[in-house]
Write a structure and sequence with these properties.
The protein has no helices and 60 strands. By secondary structure, the protein is mostly beta strands. It starts with a strand and ends with a strand.
Length: about 550
């Protein structure tokens, strides 16, 4: 197929009311060049014709579309009142809107976005309502799968802003997005049910709260198997809470399961997470997160203010706050912490956990936890501490302290947890994707000890190509045949670090994010009922 290029000039744009398809090929994309048009590139409506008519963009490259005169927004695509809209294997680059949705504006529409890359899409920084650098969604249920967002920025919601919407994000990566208010990566507002799974948020920032994510009001969310690294909430002008995640007190309910928080920074409370609503944090790892100011700010890993928070089977190490709560800060909050490990290589001060009572009594229940310094490293200006008999103060014997926080064979944390009353909170798998209970009782911490596992030896790699190798944040898998099965990646001890379903079309590369996997040698396996691939993978 020859290359196809569609170019718009000045005030020209395309309106679509019925069925539409733009389909290219791998390395032969349909190129749609906005050329700085002021009304956006393509406007899609569902008012006049059958709203069930489908819209498909596949292997399209839409760039330099400007929506500077449009009240709706959407420099690349504006979609209103339509369903059955799909973007597959597309690139959205350098699009801009004045108010909402630098690349895509969605209203009362549903969309499937898969294997699509968003680069440097923005909304103007001179408007208070400039929201969603790449995507703005209102009254929508978008599905976004295996897609990549880089360099987006906005006033609020650097990459994505949703209002009264229920998005699903699976296998997506967000990098270097920023905003001048809250939510460097994504802002969720009004009501909605949110699913974030197998995603990665790296080096996003907010001049306000929520370096990666901000949950504003009425949001029920499940965040699972997701990696947060080096996200920042910093401001000398505004309150900057939650280096990675900020949760307001306005009727949110957030579940964080099997996630990794590494090196996130907040200028105020909560180096990784600041929570003011009900939340559960299960099976997660918090390492090297910190707060940067000492003016009664704290919670190097987590700060909870007037919240009910459950922390189960989490591991905390080397988090830092210059004043109080190097790991946890409670401000008028109620926290239950069970089966968790708080163990630092270096003890910065003896305020590992700090209870601060201002209006309501801060309460902390701790059972079956391993805490360096024990009860002596928990301090307060007032509050209630329930320290149960199942707690210990012994080295957890991490496999490689500071790097690998799984448990060695001689760890006192093995089979030292409790699962009698916690079935509702225990996921089937630990942070590595292995069975959560092994050996009769649950372990403390985010990793369950499994014992040694044999490395597979048989290799069959015909018709499959995995690149790049060595890899860093992601890989592409290309197949010479249809493939529908599972992708697993295991380290050399046999511990599974990635386990997910994959669907690969013939000769259509599929991008797979590798969130938070340490550098080293791994075994990659692709298995279906008909075919299998096993090969070495180097992550640098």
């Amino acid at each position: 197929m020859p290359d196809v290029r569609v170019e718009f000039n000045e005030d020209s744009y395309l309106e679509i009311f019925g069925h539409f398809s733009a389909i290219g090929e791998y390395n032969k994309e349909v190129k749609i060049f906005g050329n700085g048009t002021s009304r956006g590139v393509i406007q899609i409506y569902g008012y006049l014709d059958n709203p069930l008519d489908s819209i498909l963009f596949e292997y399209c490259w839409i760039w330099d579309g400007y929506a500077l005169d449009s009240l709706a927004g959407g420099g690349g695509l504006s979609i209103i009142g339509r369903d059955r809209v799909s973007l597959k294997n597309c690139i959205m680059e350098g699009n801009k809107a004045k108010n909402k949705g630098g690349a895509i504006y969605l209203e009362n529409s549903d969309i499937l976005i898969s294997n699509t890359e968003f680069y440097y899409n923005v909304v103007g920084n001179d408007a208070d309502d400039a929201k969603g650098g790449a995507l703005y969604a209102k009254n929508c249920d978008p599905q976004i799968v295996n897609s990549y967002f880089k360099g987006s920025h906005a006033q609020i919601g650097g990459a994505i802003f949703t209002s009264n919407s229920s998005p699903e994000l699976i296998g997506c990566s967000f990098e270097d997005s920023y905003c001048f208010g809250g939510g460097g990566g994504i802002v969720f507002q009004d009501s909605g049910h949110v699913l974030i799974m197998d995603c990665s948020f790296k080096s996003n920032s907010a001049t306000g709260s929520g370096g990666a994510l901000a949950f504003l009001e009425g949001i029920h969310a499940r965040i699972e198997n997701t990696y947060f690294e080096n996200n920042h909430a910093e401001s000398s002008k505004y309150i900057a809470d939650g280096g990675a995640i900020f949760i307001t007190p306005f009727d949110n309910e957030i579940n964080i399961i099997n996630c990794i928080f590494k090196g996130n920074v907040s200028e105020h409370n909560g180096g990784a997470v600041h929570v003011e609503s009900d939340a559960n944090i299960i099976g997660s790892l918090f390492i090297d997160n910190n707060t940067t100011t000492a003016d009664m700010q704290g919670g190097g890993a987590i700060a909870a203010s007037q919240a009910h928070l459950i922390i189960h089977n989490c591991t905390f190490s080397n988090n830092y706050s210059p004043l109080v709560g190097t790991s946890l800060l409670l401000i008028d909050a109620n926290i239950s912490m069970i089966n968790s490990i708080l163990w630092d290589d270096v003890v910065y001060n003896q305020n590992v956990i700090f209870l601060n009572t201002i209006e309501d009594t801060a309460k902390l229940f701790i059972d079956n936890c391993d805490i360096k310094g024990g009860i002596n490293y928990i301090n307060a200006t007032g509050g209630v501490l329930n320290w149960e008999n199942g707690n210990i103060e012994e080295s957890p014997h991490f496999i490689l302290p500071g790097v690998d926080f799984s448990l060695a064979w001689n760890s006192p944390c093995i089979n030292a947890g409790r699962s009698d009353t916690l079935q509702f909170f225990i996921p089937a798998e630990d942070l590595a994707g292995n069975p959560r209970i092994s050996g009769g009782e649950i372990d403390m911490g985010c990793y369950e000890y499994q014992g040694p596992i044999r490395i597979p030896e048989k290799v069959k790699n015909e018709d499959f190509v995995v690149y790049p190798n060595p890899a860093k944040d992601h890989i592409y898998i290309r197949s010479g045949r249809e493939f529908d099965g599972r992708l697993t990646i295991s380290d050399l001890s046999g511990r599974t670090v990635v386990d997910r379903e994959v669907n690969i079309s013939k000769d259509s590369p599929v991008r797979q994010a590798l969130p938070g996997i340490p550098a080293g040698f791994y075994i990659l396996n692709l298995n279906s009922k008909d075919y299998s691939l096993s090969q070495k993978l180097i992550i640098k």
